[in-house]
Amino acid sequence: MSSEDAALEALGALGDPVRRGLYRHVTGTPGEVGRDAAAEAVGVSRSLAAFHLDKLVEAGLLEVSFRRLSGRSGPGAGRPSKLYRRAEGERAVSVPPRSYDAASRLLAEVVERAGLDGELQAVARAAGEASGGASDCAADPVEVLRSRGYEPFRDGATVRLNNCPFHALAEQFPALVCGMNLAGIEGLLTGLPDGDRWSAVMDPLPRGCCVALRAADAGPDGAADGMPEATPES
Length: 234
Known about the structure:
Layout: H1 3-12, H2 17-27, E1 33-34, H3 35-42, H4 46-58, E2 62-67, E3 81-86, H5 100-113, H6 117-134, H7 141-147, E4 152-155, E5 158-161, H8 167-172, H9 174-191, E6 198-202, E7 211-215
Antiparallel strand pairs: 1-3, 2-3, 4-5, 5-7, 6-7
């Protein structure tokens, strides 16, 4: 099977709306998700959720681990729960075939070899600011990042980004791409009306984005006013 056929087959598994909803819930939740939580999130029975979750595993879109959610061990602790998380790797299909990723890698290599990191960051910051200025005047920075695929979630007074839209490129050119990403988000915050409520900092997640947002108006309990409810599940 060609790589294109494999990608089409994997993405075809998302044609079912229930399966698509389960995938979005699992991938949008930091950490791992159990069958009960996934079923409740999309409003289906546990058995139906289990069936579709396992189909997503077969398609290579999710991965499985087993863990006792109670934290106990030994006799009487119960059986480990089956937990799901986003699978490593990416699936992409272009019709007709395109190879933008190859071009982006070549361009990144040229910028890195030429030592043009500062110039790239300046362009990214300017583009981010222009994009923020063109957004809806009521646009919330967190929701703007959500619409761009970053999958933000709340962690006390910090908003972390569960997904890196530049993941493959960042793995090959981490300093270059993460610097560009930070500068772009800084520019976006400058351009958005409510952007001054946040500051962008480099604070990488093991399986997510290198940038996080810190709230300027964090309350005494560590939570930030107006921050969206998106607390990660265990």
